[in-house]
Amino acid sequence: RVLELAGAVVLPGFVDLHTHLREPGREDTETIATGSAAAALGGYTAVFAMANTDPVADNAVVVEHVWRRGREVGLVDVHPVGAVTVGLAGEKLAELGTMANSLARVRVFSDDGRCVHDPLLMRRALEYSTALDAVVAQHAEEPRLTVGAQAHEGEAAARLGLAGWPAVAEESIVARDCLLAHHTGARLHVCHVSTAGTAEILRQAKERGTRVSAEVTPHHLLLDDGRLAGYDPVNKVNPPLRTAADTAALREALAAGVLDCVATDHAPHAPQDKDCEWASARPGMLGLQTALSVVVSTMVQPGLLDWRGVARVMSERPAEIGGLADQGRPIEVGEPATLTLVDASATWTVRGAELASIAHNTPYEGMELPGRVVMTLLRGRITAYEGEVAT
Ligand code: DOR
Ligand code: ZN
Ligand code: ZN
Q1: From the CB of 49, is ligand 1 less than 6 Å away?
Q2: Is the ipTM beyond the 0.85 threshold?
């Protein structure tokens, strides 16, 4: 059979620094097997599995389960993220050293979903992470400024009577953590940057020499709070969809390298947690299988990034930040291939029911998106080809 490819582009396999795989605990929404399939189909060859599982990945037993199950499935390298605090409770540091020295070799710590709020704990986590050659990835949200929050604090939410999630809740924590990182000399990674103001704080910190990196999600590049009008909880996410001016600033910041990479914050949720009232819906949206297409639509087509730039934000920088020496770079001659083949000129229509995840909460339902992943290879093995995963 002859493959019709009008615009084939080869890229290093994508690396996602921020994936919720939900195992252990919520296998009704995603498992390491189904999430790995979604990742391979999306062009990913490595994902970092967030620690807000049940039980929480705050010890070597849980992180080794995630690591081992990822290797068994074998579609993508699954790197467990370790929790910063015990039970994500923000009271006591988790066993960072044990996790870093375990089989799973944890190199990213995060309480994602919850901010490491206490500045002393954050300082100690940063100091430990330096000694462990790791990074702390902060979910930047001042919880006392987001009590009862339902959407971005601004005009769109006010019109609908939804309580606001102000930009300053994110910006105040990012400013604090940049100062703490600078003071300790540690490396900080800021999760899912969503406001123009945060990008400006990061620009200044980098100019000053602070060792800070940052990610932006596909949904914060494409979607804005105009989507709130229908009250469809598929658009509820934390941090919330911001304004059109924010999405424009985030695209510019990603193009300029102020934001280092794209990370999905892939967050599967059960139907009962999304097909309900806005106020009781859980925040989060699927991202693994649509990320590349959203980047093509928001960055490549408007001329903000070329394909070299796509490799930088989807592969190289996330591999560097996550400490992966074997990913995120061009393959050498004779080396087993870890790569993604993209048809740049193809378009496809997103259907949540056809995605590999157990959950179907995609905000792009019915949208026609550009750029299609044709094939993914991990160390010389085809993991996904033409929309099918290897078995
Ligand atoms: O929207 C989100 N969903 N934001 C988070 O920080 C956590 C995530 C989840 O686990 O569902
Ligand atoms: Zn988060
Ligand atoms: Zn997250």
Answers
A1: no
A2: yes
